[in-house]
């Protein structure tokens, strides 16, 4: 009898550990809630940007690897574009909401963090560094973003996402401008 209770207790502990590892996704804000906040109400209908030619090459260069999809969904109104992007930190994707207004980053928010370390990038003290950032040299940003000890790969992922959002915003706005 004691043996069966011991096995049952071990099984319960193993099940709890498996449940904890499966629940490692830290959802800080849903993409829908981010969109509502970014547009101060219901967001506009999503649009799709197809990644072809030179744009595809630029995207892959920013990420330092081929982008897995053929298109990227975004939301746009008269003053801003909003991008919900995933990028691998160390092993798993970090989902980030990025708002771009007037060619500058208006907001960076970590929506879902799936890594075992580096979660500090979700805090305002870190994401505030991106405010007003613009494209810089060599597919970078126009400013230095301070790293966080133990979160280097997560920091790099957010920097890539920020630069990618700026590139995509620039591309979308350039194809919508009337020809002179």
Structural write-up:
There is one protein chain. The chain is of the alpha+beta class and 180 residues long. It has one domain (22-176). It contains 5 helices and 6 strands; from the N terminus they run H-E-H-E-H-E-E-E-E-H-H. It has helices at 2-22, 31-38, 53-63, 124-127, 152-176, and strands spanning 26-27, 47-50, 71-76, 80-88, 93-101, 104-113. It has a 6-stranded antiparallel β-sheet with strand order 1-6-5-4-3-2, sandwiched between helices. The radius of gyration is 20 Å and the shape is globular. The protein starts with a helix and ends with a helix.
Strand content: 15-25%
Mean pLDDT score, rounded?
88
| Distance between the ends | 86 Å
Helical proportion?
25-40%
Number of strands: 6
């Amino acid at each position: 009898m004691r043996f069966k209770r011991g096995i049952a207790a071990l099984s319960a502990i193993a099940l709890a550990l498996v449940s904890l590892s499966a629940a490692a996704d830290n959802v800080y804000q849903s993409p829908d809630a981010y969109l509502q906040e970014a547009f101060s109400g219901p967001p506009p209908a999503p649009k799709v940007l197809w990644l072809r030619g030179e744009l595809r090459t630029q995207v892959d260069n920013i990420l330092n690897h081929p982008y897995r999809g053929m298109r990227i969904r975004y939301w746009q109104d008269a003053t801003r574009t909003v991008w919900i992007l995933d990028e691998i930190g160390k092993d798993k994707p970090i989902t980030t909401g990025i708002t771009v207004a007037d060619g500058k980053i208006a907001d960076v928010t970590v929506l879902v963090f799936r890594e075992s370390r580096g979660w500090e990038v979700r805090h305002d003290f870190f994401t505030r560094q991106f405010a007003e950032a613009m494209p810089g040299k060599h597919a970078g940003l126009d400013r230095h973003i301070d790293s966080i000890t133990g979160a280097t790969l997560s920091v790099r992922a957010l920097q890539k996402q920020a630069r990618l959002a700026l590139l995509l915003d620039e591309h979308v706005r350039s194809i919508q401008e009337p020809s002179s």
